[in-house]
Amino acid sequence: MIIRKPKKKRIMGKWIIAFWLLSAVGVLLLMPAEASVAKYQQNQQIAAIDRTGTAAETDSSLDVAKIELGDPVGILTIPSISLKLPIYDGTSDKILENGVGITEGTGDITGGNGKNPLIAGHSGLYKDNLFDDLPSVKKGEKFYIKVDGEQHAYQIDRIEEVQKDELQRNFVTYLEPNPNEDRVTLMTCTPKGINTHRFLVYGKRVTFTKSELKDEENKQQKLSWKWLLGSTVFLSVMIIGSLFVYKKKK
């Protein structure tokens, strides 16, 4: 005599399997889709600066946003965390939702000894990954700034985490320029969602080598493909495993 499991339990099993499958698909597809919307204007401006050295003419639907943002003054690239963002002049809310900004009163990014502009960016925004991964960079790595058609390379020689109030009290001490060095400092809030501290990454300008930047970018692209492959395998295993469990329970 064959004893069948109650219909309600079979239906519940199907719902549990469906939930896990939809969750996996959501993680892999939904979040990147959300991020792609936020990155549309970033990529448009970055591509234009890469081609011409100046910001793009946006379409009419983006005119209002363009007025609020202004034109980007450069591009920041950090290969080690696969980051490429437009740099704007200022740190308004609109700017920091769409890229990174130069803190007022800290100078410009055109380069030269005695300069140390502070480039600030948000972390922890739902719709975009801006400076979320900045705390993952390491001393000795490089970041790059494209400005006026030229690429400037900066090597990270110091990293520190400072309380927000401490930085405000001693701002000049932490960001004081060196008359004999060309420097740039990157900053974001930390920990995500709490923001009691500021994460500072200091870079000193070094000789730019085009092939070196290309090698770094290629290396990070390979890592991205590995992540995508791993995610695909994970999703496949979940689907096959779920079907196996379902058939076994039937």
Automatic annotation (TrEMBL):
One of its GO terms (molecular function) is hydrolase activity. CDD domains: Sortase_C (cd05827). The chain crosses the membrane at residues 227-246. Keywords: Hydrolase, Membrane, Transmembrane, Transmembrane helix. InterPro entries: Sortase, Sortase_C, Sortase_dom-sf. This is Class C sortase. The lineage of its organism: Bacteria, Pseudomonadati, Pseudomonadota, Gammaproteobacteria, Enterobacterales.
